[in-house]
Each structure stands twice: as C-alpha cells, then as structure tokens.
Amino acid sequence: MIRLGSAAxxxxxxxxxxAQLVAVILVIATFNFVLVQAAPGDPxxxxxxxxxxxxxxxxxxxxxxxxxxxxxxxxxxSYLGRVVRLDLGYSYRQRRPVVDxxxxxxxxxxxxxxxxxxxxxxxxxxxxxxxGLAAGSVLDTVFTVLSLVLYATPVFWLGLxxxxxxxxxxxxxxxxxxxxxxxxxxxxxxxxxxxxxxxMPVTSLAAIYLAIYARLMRSSIIEVAQQDFIKTARAKGxxxxxxxxxxxxxxxxxxxxxxxxxxxxxxxxxxxxxxTVFAWPGLGRLTFDALLQRDYPVLLxxxxxLSIVVIVLNLLTDLIYRLIDPRMTTGAA
Amino acid sequence: MSDTVxxxxxxxxxxGLSIALPEGGDRPFAVxxxxxxxxxxxxxxxxxxxGSGKSMIAHAVLSLLPKSVNIAAGAVTVAGQNPAKLDRxxxxxxxxxxxxxxxxxxxxxxxxxxxxxxxxxxxILTHQKPMPSAIEVHERVQQLLTxxxxxxxxxxxxxxxxxxxxxxxxxxxxxxxxxNRPALLIADEPTTALDVTTQRQILRLIDDLRRDRGMGVLLxxxxxGVVADVADRVVVLRHxxxxxxxxxxxxxxxxxxxxxxxxxxxxxxxRLDEIRRTAVHPTPLLEVIGLEKTFxxxxxxxQPPREVVAADxxxxxxxxxxxxxxxxxxGSGKSxLGRMIMRLTEPxxxxxxxxxxxxxxxxxxxxxxxxxxxxxxxxxPFASLDPRQKVGDAxxxxxxxxxxxxxxxxxxxxxxxxxxxxxxxAADRYPHEFxxxxxxxxxxxxxxxxxxxxxxxxxxxxxxxxxxxxxxxxLLAELRQEMKLAMIFITHDLRIAAEIADRVIVLQxxxxxxxxxxxxxxxxxxxxxxxxxxxxxxxRDFFDQPGFASxxxxxxxxxxxx
Lengths: 333, 562
Prior knowledge:
The structure holds 2 protein chains of 2 kinds.
Chain A: H1 6-38, H2 43-50, H3 56-65, H4 72-84, E1 90-91, E2 96-97, H5 98-133, H6 138-152, H7 155-169, H8 187-225, H9 228-235, H10 240-277, H11 283-292, H12 296-324
Antiparallel strand pairs in A: 1-2
Chain B: H1 3-7, E1 12-20, E2 29-38, E3 43-47, H2 54-61, E4 70-78, H3 88-94, E5 99-102, H4 116-127, H5 134-147, H6 153-156, H7 166-178, E6 184-188, H8 196-213, E7 216-221, H9 224-230, E8 233-238, E9 241-247, H10 248-253, H11 258-266, E10 286-297, E11 306-318, E12 323-327, H12 334-341, E13 349-354, E14 357-358, H13 364-372, E15 374-377, H14 391-401, H15 406-419, H16 436-448, E16 454-458, H17 466-483, E17 486-491, H18 494-500, E18 503-508, E19 511-517, H19 518-523, H20 528-535
Parallel strand pairs in B: 3-7, 3-8, 5-6, 6-7, 12-17, 12-18, 15-16, 16-17
Antiparallel strand pairs in B: 1-2, 1-4, 8-9, 10-11, 10-13, 13-14, 18-19
Helix pairs in contact in B: 4-5, 4-7, 5-7, 7-8, 14-15, 14-16, 15-16
Function (chain B): Involved in beta-(1-->2)glucan export. Transmembrane domains (TMD) form a pore in the inner membrane and the ATP-binding domain (NBD) is responsible for energy generation.
Pfam family, one (chain B): ABC_tran
Domain ABC transporter (chain B): 12-264, 286-534
C-alpha cells in the first residue's frame, strides 16, 4: 500500500474539518438560541423587577427597546447574521459588547483550565504508568486508592476544604481571586502572585481528571504489557526502561488521548463551579452571573465560544491521535 | 547432518527440565523432566498439541516465562550459559544476541506504532558494541531485509507493520532475529497463521538461513507435515512429557509411542479411493450463478477507495448429500462466498438458487424460512458462542424461533449434544467449561438443530488440534451420511479438502481457477495456481499426497531444499 505523506493527509483532514466547524457553529448557535428562549422569564422581567416596579408599561418599553417583542424567527435571524460577522451582541445588563466581556474573561479561564488539564494529563499518566508497571504492588494499591478517592470527591467540596486548610487555618495561600489587588508588583512578582492564587483552583479542577487519566493509563499499561510485541521486545534483549519508553508508552497513550480529548470540553464546564468557589474572574463566573440575570446575549456568546473551544479541542485530539497512531492516517486499520 | 555437526557442542541443551504451574491448575507441571539437545546447523522440531507445554519450553530457553510459573528442576543451557542463572545484563546479551526468537502471530509480535526499519535497528543498537554508526546500522538493516527476501527494502523499512502482508511481517521478524547472527533460533509456530504457499516460503527461508550460518533451530509446531519437511530431529510432547524423540526418519517411519502414531495418522490425507461417487440428483439443491462482490475500502481524502474483488463471477452447484470444498488462500474470497450464500453479505450481482427459489429475491418471512435450511459453522468456536448463554439455550433458540416449544427444543438440544459426542447434561453448562473441540461440536449441534439441508463449514476445524480435527471431520462425515446433508466446506488446508470433499473448487482473488472431482483436482491439477497450492502442502513427500508421489520405494527427502 502506498502511503501519502502523513503531513499532507493531516493537512487535508484539517481543512475539511474546518469547513465542518463553520457549519457546526451555526447549528449550535441556533440551538443555543432556542434553548435560552425556552427557559422561563426574559431579561425585561428581571430588569423591571430589579428596578422595583413590575409596571406593565415599563416592561413593554424595555421589551421594545431590546427587540424582545419581535417574533423568535426574526430575533434568531438577526442573531445568526451577527454571529457570522463575529458580533455577539450587546449586554443590556452590563452595557458593554458581549465580545469585550468574553475576551476580558477568557484569558483567566484558559489559564486555569489549560494549566489544570496539562497537569492532570502529565501527573495522571505518569502516576498511572508507574502504578500499571508495578501492578499488584503496594505502590499500585496506594495510587489506586488515592485516585479512587480523588475521583469520588466533589469538585466544590475539595475546593472548600482546600480553602479551609490552606487559607483559613494555615494562612499559606490566598483564599480567592486572581491576584492581590491594590498592590503594585514587579512583573515577576506579579506572575508569582497569580501562580499562588492559582494553586488551589487548579488543584481542585485537576483532581478528578488526574484520577481518571491515572486509572485509564494504569489499565492501558497493564494491557499493553501483555501484548505479544512486548514479549518480542524482551526477547530482543532490550532493557526494562527502553521497553517502557520505546514500546509501551506510545501504545498505552492512545486510549488516554481519546478520553482526554473528549473531556477537555467538560473541563471548561467544570471551571464554572471552581471559578464561583474561588471568585476567579473568568468565563465561569460570567456565565453564572449572566444566568442569574437572564443576560441572554452574554449567555449565547459564552455558549457559542465554549462550543467552538470544544470543537477545536476535538479537532486537535483527532490530529494528535493521527500523529500517535499511523494506522489512523490512511483510514485502513 | 554431517560429522562436523555431530562433533560440535550443542547450542541448546535442555536437561531434566520441569516447569511448575501455579497451584490449582489442572496439572502441577507444565513440563516434566524434558531433555533434548539442539546442535549447530540442526533443526529440531518440538511437536505436540495445544497444552503440551511446547511453548513453555521455548519461553524457558530465553527466560521469558510468565511470573506465575517457574523452573522446578533441571537446567537449560544456551550457548554455554544458563539463562535462569544470568544477571540482567548477561541475560539481555543472550536474548537477541546468541539466541533469537520468532513468534506465531507476526502482526501482534511487532510494535504497531513503530516503523519496521526502526524495530530492526533497535535490535542491532542494543547488541552491537561498540555502537555502530547510523550509516552502518542503516546499511545492515537494508542488507537484512534483502536477505530475508523482501522486495524494495528502502520503501519497506519505512512501513508500519499494518501495511505489510502476513508473510512480509514474518520475514521482518526473521530479519530482526537474524540481526546479530544468533547461534540459536527459536521459532514458536512461525507459520501457523500463514497460508500454505507463504508457509513454505518462510520455512525455506529459515532453512536457508540455518544452512548459511550453521545456526541451530528449535522449531515448535503442531503440524507433522512441517516436521516431515524441515526437521532433522523430532521431540514429541504430550501433557508436558516427552513421549518420543529421535531423527525424523525414525520417528515418522517407525513411531514407537502410540501417541506419535495417532498424531501421524490424524494428519488429514487424501482418501481418494474411498470417496464414493454420490448418486447425483438431476436438479441441484443449491445453485450459484455468476456471483459478484467487490469491497471498497475507504482510504485518505483524495485517494480512490481500494477495491478488493471477493467474487468475480463465481458459479457452483451443490447436490443433496454432497460435500463441496472451497479452497484458497486468505483473501481469495472463500469466506465471503459462504456469507453471500447465507445472505449475511449482500452480493453485487448474480443469483443464488436454493430449492427452486431465488434466494436473493426473498424478503422477510420467506427469507427466514429459507435461511433455516442453510446453516453455518464458523472457524472460532470461542467467539461463536455467547459466553453468557447456556449451551442448551444456544442450541434450542433456533427451533424455538421457529415455533417449537421450549420443552421440545431443549429435549432436541440434549439429543443433539449426545449425537455430536457430548453428554446431555452439557446443556446446562456454559461454553467456557468446554474445550475448543467440544465447543465446535456444540456449534455443529446448534446448526443441526434447525434440520438444515445445507451446512456451510467456514474453516470449521482450522483452530483445532490435529487429533481433535480428525474426530470432528469424522463426525461431519457421519452426519452428512445420516441426514443427507449437503456441505460446503471452506478451508485453506488442502489436506482437509482432500479428506472430506467429493468435489473441490479452487478460488483465487474471487475467481474459480479450478473445479472438479476431488480425485481429479488432486491428481491432475490443471491450473498453475492449484499446482502451487498442492506443492506447498507441508509433508507432501512423506505423506505421499496423490499426484506428487515420490518415485516408488524412494525414501522421502527429509529436507525440502537440500
């Protein structure tokens, strides 16, 4: 069989995926819009309620002002038209464009989730690999119990307990926030300050994923260790470490990459809870606040951005998958 | 064997070896008090059925035994060293250095995610001191790939195992094993997963390399045909004990042990004189006319799909009580043919007439009724039974689906179990409690429960040990007689086809290249492809296959190529 250069094949695949991406985004935008409309209450009611008077006249005016009196179809069409132009609308509550709001919060969320994801993947697979290689040993038992405990611990509870221990009791770490406010710091000190603030939220967020990857990697390593080609490698006279590095790791990573790719999206969802617990100024908090305030444009914007993030992550997983496993490149197994 | 060989010290000697199994197994020792030697430039075959402990011995030679088993007594000496007593470093030098090993399944024995060239390089880099330069290593890899007869080594070294054929993969394994010029090659069923013609090529290659380098070969096999072709000496194992050993002439010509005789007898042989001419009804029961099927395998985005022709105008007829063998190598389309007749795979074109009806036109209830009369038994008796369904249920489900009451169906299931040589109480047990041969009997009982008129056996005995294979074949022959069954026997093993079939069809790439009465096809093959296949039957000289009988009275040549 003649193989196309794998780089060329992967490039072509990426192009076709991007075309799919645009179509999927429009479908998701429509779906989000319908979903939010289906929820009871509209922003005019909330605003009117908060200003103290549920005057029908005020309600009417507010609705007309924000275009909420038009038919759903018209609202949807104008929304999609704007999405295509990358205009996500205007937050009536915050009186700012949605794009600005999201872009302002996105870096903090990405910092939190990407760090948590990388750490979970790195530490999880390492611990899992060690446990798998030493299957049945004391080390393996300890790791397995530990990962089970982490897996079963609710994310918010872990966050609260960390705060209780490390901030309230020991006073080692700042209990919440992104940085120490009202203090001028040199760039390096500023970075360290942010890092210090990140420790607990990242730990809480990463814990459950770390446990999942560790368990997955453990069973994957155990399975690969029983494969015939590992016996071949031993019969070749390779040393233990070179068998692990040269033959086991890459094969064992295939299922982990699959699951990690699927879960990377869920990680962003998990950030909503953690950001609320730690008052982290990211998209999660923005979502939470927008939800309480029925701030439709912001919610729609966030959903859309999160969907795009998830789709892009899936695309990346596919690409990485193909780099790890050459059997995927030609589509022939 | 020359005198110089005799004089040399053995490359492998196994003395009084006993390997203990973990407690609670069906026997305390996997291998008990086994002794034999392999001298340089000599091929010793270790023969036995599954569970005889032959692979255990091979693994003990390189100290590759699983952790749960250990050597209880005796010693292995490879090139003057005892692997069990070596430190890690020395053991690693032995593995792949003085002694190399190849395995049964070349696909799973190669790392799927590493280019084959790199896997061979690794073998060189691990053992050659001082470390050769990158250019030297590369040259050596090219040289090895050429030596094992692989075309276009430049392209090949960049390939991944999944891109190669079974034979090519096994050649890569051999190239890897040869990389450091080992004194001993251990080959654990190296050709069992391969087609006959590929098997012959691989055995020849091993034999050529043996002669070139004067290395000792320990070849593990279950096939006496292979033994007859390549062995200098034979060690016959049963339940972990040596029942007989000696030169190939001694053991094959004058077996001393009863068990050896049984094994040799069990090798399927053409019994052409015994094949009766079935009284042929004027109208065939099953008629296949111009069947076409092409599989399209999707590839990359811009590449056209790869087309595999599985059937290219196949026509055949089958009469009541007749057995038709369909033979061919893997990929010839023989299994697809069976599946198309069952309508498990939809053909692209052609017609299938069964009992006067056009099977391809049937839908719904009519198809269901027709299918009842066409039953199939698959190759893998482990995968073809639901592990969570009792054997009785598995057999009774069919008749129950056609309206038989549960009590009656279970009664029938018990009767059938007795008929296929099992016990009626087997009905209440689960498939995992049975051996491979017993499971295949269960599968046959399941197929017969619907009182079919045509039984398709798709490699139904290929996964079984020879002695079990012989029993299952005998059972099928009896049933055919008794129930006037028409059988389509799909097999890659021509010896089996010759033993059981009235007529034979030879398939190559979806086309019938030869068709005729078994005796004619085997004694006077017309197509070159059929001749190739017959030529490749292991042990054909020894077992005196028709059409290839050696000059009367001449001793069979033990070596295929010397």
